[in-house]
Automatic annotation (TrEMBL):
Superkingdom of origin: Bacteria
Phylogenetic classification of the source organism: Bacteria, Bacillati, Actinomycetota, Actinomycetes, Propionibacteriales
Stated name of the protein: Acyl-CoA dehydrogenase
Enzyme's top EC category: oxidoreductase
PANTHER family per the UniProt record, alphabetical: ACYL-COA DEHYDROGENASE, ISOVALERYL-COA DEHYDROGENASE, MITOCHONDRIAL-RELATED
ATP-binding listed as a keyword: no
Amino acid sequence: MADMTTTAFELSREHEEFRASVREFAAAEIAPHAAQWDRDHHFPIDVVRKMGALGLFGLTSPEEYGGAGEDGDFTSLCVAIEEIGRVDQSMGITLQAAVGLGINPVLTYGTEDQKKQWLPALVAGEELAGFGLTEPGAGSDAGATRTKAVLDGGEWVVDGSKQFITNSGSEITSLVTVTARTGTREDGRPEISTIMVPAGTPGFTAEKAYDKLGWHASDTHPLSFQSCRVPAENLLGERGRGYAQFLATLDDGRVAISALSVGCIQACLDMSVEYAGERQTFGGPIGRKQGVAFQIADLEVMLHASRMLTYRAAALKDAGAPYQEFKQAAAVAKLYTTESAVTATRIATQVFGGYGFMEEYPVARFYRDAKVLEIGEGTSEVQRMLIARGLGLPVE
């Protein structure tokens, strides 16, 4: 396949028109309420459903399940996440996780019966699904998974716990897909499979929501499974392929998190430019001071670089590029954009000075929300390891 040139991944007119419609929706339905949701730690189900009515959860799904079909693609999803995240990172991650971690595994690995059972409501935004991977002792080291699933007759019996799981305990959560040890391989390594556990199944508990540093309006819970029985046909994909499945799922998710980071950087730039033009000191706006103006110029550079890396990776995904090429592009995008987003919020807070430390200004919320971008979907350290391996280095 030929190298992707700059023009190959510029957004099309249709993508830009779609961006405008999502931006209008975000400005009307999310922006006026984001601060209050953050203060109240409120997960706005009504807005989630409005996002579903707009078609945002179905951008990568076929029409037969209620999705956009040929009218949507992965790039469109990234555009939507960026624009939602530009006004509220909590709603941005809700969309990202709902599609990338909820819908995508079922769409990619599910049987036709599983797809027909679960996808229509998920695609419509009437229901949400979570992906239970991380555990107290197993995050980046997913091979250390301790949750177990044992076949007993025609049922899987699941025991264990998960943590930091998005969209896992809301009123409209219908399903959580969990990774679990289902045996031992010949080489002694654990056999990891993925199993779908419907909400309300006896023995499955979404514990009290976390009191998080940021993403206050996002639904995030620890999960516990105690002799939790689900039908044997709830196995998602091939038995023993759960590890490979979640790796592929995370590759897509890294690009989507990059899009969320781009939205964060754009918000920081917008707020900083406006404030620097209005705030008066020593007889003029602070934006005429090089110490301020140069920092804002750095935001512009970070924004363009982050957006380019993100949409290049998305274009590779949509073009069906070789897996290793896409995987490397996803890791590069995720590393650069998330670290840039954290830096952008620090710069924006500094531009605002004392006001940036006050919760009445959105910049403070973005500052709190940004840090987790460097952690979720693979930490910055993991991305550097993947990039180094992609270069042929024997890094452990």
